[in-house]
Amino acid sequence: MSSGSIFVWESLGTAMLILLGAGVVANVVLKDTLGHAGGWLLINIGWGFAVFAGASIAAPSGAHLNPAVTLGLAVADKTPWDKVPVYFAGQMVGAFLGAVLAWLAYKAQFDAHDDPAGTRGIFCTGPTIPKAGWNVVTEVIGTFALVAWVLLSPAAKETADGVPQLGNSALGYAGVAFVVIGIGASLGGPTGYAINPARDLAPRIAYAILPIRDKGSAEWGYAWVPVVGPLLGGLLAGLLYLVLPV
Asked: How do residues 149-208 score in pLDDT, each as one tens digit?
């Protein structure tokens, strides 16, 4: 596939991912919405199916949607290294656009919200206990779980006698949606489970730029954690794939 096509499909898929992902957080956090105070489980489910929708759209490019996934696949020799910057660019552009669209969808609720300084979490993640080293560890482990599943989960195939053999990834993009929901429910508590540098950094930039009334800080001092942690997790998953007899 050409670099231009990869960029377009990754941008479209990641835009859908962040539109629905940031959208479900806005629905829970902002007042005067039907989902207000819906809780952590609603956010987890919303993000899981945001991944399903985004990945389904970006299927022609391989549906990476995540620099950590792209890096893990490149390390595992499943994505050409010269395409990695193209994937990264598409993911960042799409994530920024998705964040802007989510803000537009909830513009009236942003304007009416009684805690405008607390709206950053709609766009990007933050730790419950700010300890950068341990926050990185959490993001590494969560992302490693995601990328390892992508690399190691066996695909559906047909045996020589024509009998289908269904692997763990037979559900396709619905399967990764369930994995993301599981990661959020199990490992998302300490940091909000960015597990995707583009998912966190591009919407954080959007939050800093958008004209949100009385908004708070974008917390740039923390912004490196949900970039470095997921990239390390993706790298480790790729290295694991190389040493396993698969």
From this structure: 999 987 655 555 666 655 566 678 899 999 999 999 999 999 999 999 999 999 999 999
Does residue 122 sit within a domain? no
C-beta separation of 55 from 63 below 8 A? yes
Half-sphere exposure (Cβ direction) of 227: Cα atoms closer than 13 Å: 12
The answer to whether residue 25 sits within a structural domain is yes
Question: CA–CA separation, 53 vs 72, rounded Å?
Answer: 22
Cβ contact 98:17 at 8 Å: yes
Contact of 180 with 194, CB cutoff 8 Å? no
Among residues 69, 91, 71, 83, the alpha carbon closest in space to that of 199 is found at 91
- Percent of residues in the chain assigned helix, strand, coil, to nearest 5: 65, 0, 30
Q: Is residue 125 part of a domain?
A: no
164-165 and 157-158 beta bridge pairing = antiparallel
Domain count, the chain: 1
